Amino acid sequence: MRGATRLRDALQVPRIWKYRALSTCRRVTGKGIVHQPMLLLGSGAIVIGRDVRFGWPTSPEFHTGYLHLEAAVPDAVIEIGDEAEINNNAYIKSEGAGIHIGARALLGSNVQILDSDFHDLHPDRRRGGRPAMAPVHLEENVFIGDGTKILKGVTIGRDSVVGAGSVVTRSIPAGVIAAGNPARVVRDLVDAEDRAVAAR
Predict the structure, then answer these.
(1) For the segment 100-141, what is each residue's pLDDT rounded down to a tens digit?
(2) Which residues are marked as active site?
(3) Model pTM?
(4) 4, 98, 125, 141: least CB-packed within 10 angstroms?
(5) How far is Cα 137 from Cα 39, in angstroms, rounded to an integer?
(6) Which CATH homologous superfamily contains domain 2-199?
């Protein structure tokens, strides 16, 4: 087991350094615990809290993928709270409205978070027009399933869970489970059965 871990690290460390060398964002605060390579791009700011984990050695695409964080313009900010964990191949891009990921959040593999449409939707203005943007907030201790896409203007309330493969286009309140495309609330996180067990 130790030999496999040493081999894994020996193979991954050069990739981590390569992506660090390719990164262009100069306004990065904090480092995190980096297991999978991270590409940090843009002229904005990326703020990484204490003990944030990037990548997970036993999840798919660990050895082939990378995490992409991009604060594309000077006003863009991506903030990641203390002890958040972001699994393999996450794609997080701010074009100015801003993205905040709360403390202790868990993000599955291949999660995407975007605060912009990136192009004007009208066909005559699709190139060179002004895209719609709005900030994204993931509150503390949220759990986002694999392959979820979170779009502009969304707030996901504290402790809530979003099921794998969901597309989140509207805000989700605290303390619920949501899923689907578009994602909607399925039930309270603590339902009547959970309350009965807790009361025993």
Answers:
(1) 999 999 999 999 999 998 887 778 777 887 888 899 999 999
(2) 119
(3) 0.91
(4) 4
(5) 22
(6) Hexapeptide repeat proteins (2.160.10.10)
